[in-house]
């Protein structure tokens, strides 16, 4: 899937919440409120086993300039889904549902490969 298609998909799936892409590290960062409830910490620990990290306090995340909205050789990252406003972030539940749906699809694909003998 091309990065523009992924960017568009994320914009729709996360209701326009801001997402940063690091194309060199093959990572996407959905920005959620810092006040994410402590009850989510258990889910975040479980996601780590699936190569999903939840960055929290005391972690540095480089943020691209606001005008870098597509892959650029001169920039380390870009806004996959641009920041509309500092007050508008991704809803944590929406991000969690996207992660769960992605893992469900990956598991279906892996099961199909096993059934096909791959």
- The figure for the number of domains is 1
Spatial arrangement of strands, main beta sheet: 2-1-3
Biggest sheet character: 3 strands, antiparallel
Structural class: alpha+beta
Radius of gyration: 15 Å
Calculate the terminal CA-CA distance, rounded to whole Å. Answer: 22 Å
Task: Note the total helix count.
Answer: 3
Q: Report helical residue fraction.
A: 25-40%
Describe the structure.
This protein is α+β, with helices and mostly antiparallel strands and 118 residues long. The protein has one domain. Helices cover 37% and strands 10% of the residues. It contains 3 helices and 3 strands. The protein has a 3-stranded antiparallel β-sheet, covered by helices on one side. A hairpin with a 4-residue loop joins β1 and β2.
Q: What key attributes describe this structure?
A:
alpha+beta; 3 strands; 118 residues
Question: How would the blueprint of this fold be written?
Answer:
Elements: H1 3-13, E1 19-22, E2 27-30, H2 40-48, E3 78-81, H3 92-115
Antiparallel strand pairs: 1-2, 1-3
């Amino acid at each position: 899937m091309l990065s523009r298609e992924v960017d568009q998909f994320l914009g729709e799936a996360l209701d326009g919440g801001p997402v940063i892409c690091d194309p060199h590290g093959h990572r996407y960062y959905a920005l959620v409120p810092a006040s994410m409830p402590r009850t989510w910490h258990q889910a975040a620990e479980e996601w780590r086993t699936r190569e999903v990290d939840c960055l929290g306090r005391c972690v540095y995340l480089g943020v691209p300039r606001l005008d870098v909205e597509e892959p650029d050789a001169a920039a380390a990252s870009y806004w996959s889904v641009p920041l509309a406003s500092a007050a508008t972030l991704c809803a944590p539940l929406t991000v969690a549902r996207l992660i769960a749906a992605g893992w469900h699809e990956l598991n279906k694909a892996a099961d199909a490969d096993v059934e096909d003998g791959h």
